[in-house]
Amino acid sequence: MKILLKVFLYIFFICTFILLLKSMFLTSYPDFRNYYFNPQMAFKGLNPYIGGKNLYTATTYPPFSFILFSPFSLMNFEFAGKLITILSISLLIASLVFIFKTGEMKIKSYVFLLVSGLVFLYFPVKFTLGMGQINIFVLFFLTLFLYFLKLKKILLSGFFLALSFLTKLFPILVFPYLLYKRKYKLLAFSIFVILIVSGLSFILIPKEINFFFYQKILPSLLSSWHSDYYNQSISGFLSRSISNSQARSILRDIFVLFVIVSSVLILAKSKLKNMNFEAGYLVIITLLIDGFSWQHHFTWLILPFIFTLFLLIKTKQSKFPYALLFISYFLTAINFRSPSSLHVLLQSHVFFGALLLWILDSILILRTSVEAAKRFPKRSNRGL
What we know:
Structural class: mainly alpha
């Protein structure tokens, strides 16, 4: 039986990986056009935030990200597009390896083969590759942030956290979390790197372009209401469900406030001593409450999915949490090519999958904390 399982998992891993490799043979990577041409335009004094003939859409990336993308713009466009795809696939596999190392799980195991195959099938990953997005770079940076944090290599950990933020302004909630955890050195170094690169953007890129981002683009990112199917945040869900703008705004504020306050209270009670799991928890929250979380952004859910699985395995949970985890994965992993034909609720399946994962992780934190309190009750002050 074990031999059959091993053979099946190896076949599953190989077949899903081959399917993933199809992205290398695409003829166009639409979003990559922005990464490629943004630096060229900005360094010439042209404003990519108002669009351009070579851009897929007007860009929304911060000016300092153009510095990180600039090496690609020095290459041939077609070659650079293939290169970023190859790098993304390579970094995806590297991320899985480092996630397993960080979680102290065996790489040479059935679990690794199964998890890898499910990641290769995950639509946000395929969407990222097909669009020429760089979400897997962010995933890799976050993975290394946690890996080096585990090894207590604070400067390296802070450096990769800074790279993640500089690439996509993600994940913002980790910074106050580190402050709460008193990781002052890590936090300070990460912010220092961000400030250095931000300062370079004002030196290398015209200040008018920098100011345009902070005055026009950033406020619009915080208050946007994209109703596209691919926006799977709370704002996207409400935009598709409710036509009244005032009611929408009130409900979004209530949801955001509820999720943030309850998450803070839950983390404050946490006895897990597991920053990997808690960092993944913050990733879920960020995607839920963001103004717009495109479907390819949910590539970052790979972190909380895997660390939740690790927690279930190590704490020997019943089958029910595993079932909830799989339902959450399924809802976020699928994609509908004709979403307009679906009921409005079904069009937000990724949002509901992420919400289910947040609920599951919240329960696991509270349950584990209660069990820890029972095993290690507080000492009585009597007789002192």
